[in-house]
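CO-FOLDING WORKSHEET

Operator: S.A.
Ligand of interest: nicotinamide-adenine-dinucleotide
Run index: 386
Mode: holo prediction, single chain
Checklist:
[x] sequence pasted
[x] SMILES validated
[ ] output reviewed
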Amino acid sequence: MAAPRLDLDGEEIKPLKICMIGAGGFIGSHLCEKLMFETDHSVLAIDVYGDKISHLLQPGQAWSDRIEFHKINIKSDSRLEGLIKVADLVINLAAICTPADYNTRPLDTIYSNFVDALPVVQYCRENGKRLIHFSTCEIYGKTIGSFLPKDHPLKDDPAFYMLKEDETPCIFGSVDKQRWSYACAKQLIERLIFAEGAENGVEFTIVRPFNWIGPRMDFIPGVDGPSDSIPRVLACFSNNLMKGEPLKLVDGGLSQRTFIYIKDAIEAVQRMIENPKRANGQIFNVGNPHNEVTVRELAELMTDVYCKVSGNARPEVATIDVTSQEFYGVGYDDSDKRIPDMTIIKRQLEWEPKTSMYDLMEHTLTYQHATYAEAVKKAMSKSIAT
Ligand SMILES: NC(=O)c1ccc[n+]([C@@H]2O[C@H](COP(=O)([O-])OP(=O)(O)OC[C@H]3O[C@@H](n4cnc5c(N)ncnc54)[C@H](O)[C@@H]3O)[C@@H](O)[C@H]2O)c1
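OUTPUT RECEIVED:
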């Protein structure tokens, strides 16, 4: 018999039944894999789409009796409460979370990130269930540093950009900048969950992801998603690279972001799941402060790595500039720089990210190329023929 797995305090980890909402998405699919391949936990996987976990749902696999897929839209399905009732832990990942939607579909964004999450919190409170809720690093909005004059001596001081869960204020743009609809909705649900913890004793953990990337993130327009939709930056740039088009840099690609490999981030979530005493009542930044690049640098890196993994020559024109209004429509705004402070997660969960920017990009673009390059070529030749 295999030795029991132990938590960070040396106690045996008991198998849990986890109700995972949004399990069919990018993060959910990796979390389901981790739980099926490396633990004894069971998953009630809820989503409107199941394609990204279909490989886990085939019958006859070692974990087949530990995962069930429920095709449910949580906006309007009375089965949700029953599934929460039979679970030990609820993880809520369901959301509209693509920047292109924030100012073109602000109502859907607000409903999805706030209103649709309300019954989940309510059922957790009424049934005494622990909740791990996925928020976002967008919650911090703009940095204090971005408001300093250009030539201010503190302009480059990291202290003005380092985002701390328990200190940094949330600074959003004006209401007509609908970009902030997502961050505001996420902030309000965070505040509600925090208040449920304080007033009603709900056991919760809030996760603030800082640009988790890797295989299965979003879709390639016209291949496994609508041709007129804009996915997040990784899929956007991958699509351009596979088509041999220049990568579009919004407003000069000057924004700075940190990127973390999905598999590192999933390790952190597993620690939250299996160490409730250390994770309850906490808000965790989950990112990699060492992997910081401007979006322009990201485009350069992706071009280099894609040429390496595909064997293609480097294009003559690698990038072109577009305005945010052209790319995202009216109401777009951005935050300049986001560096996660890792003090709390290091202290509570003894976790640190491992994968470098180059390595995470190499793993991810190898997957993108193997999965999509042929289909992109076919889609392009079809559109030329018609
Ligand atoms: N990937 C990141 O780096 C990142 C960054 C910040 C925040 N987050 C947050 O993490 C969570 C998961 O993100 P992701 O990258 O996996 O996104 P994703 O879009 O790949 O996954 C979300 C999943 O939720 C499902 N969903 C949405 N509304 C639903 C509904 N009404 N009923 C049932 N299912 C529904 C979608 O079908 C999708 O499969 C989100 O809450 C997101 O805001 C992610």
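REVIEW:
The first strand starts at residue 17 and ends at 21.
Residues 95-375 form a domain with the Rossmann fold fold (CATH 3.40.50.720).
[x] output reviewed
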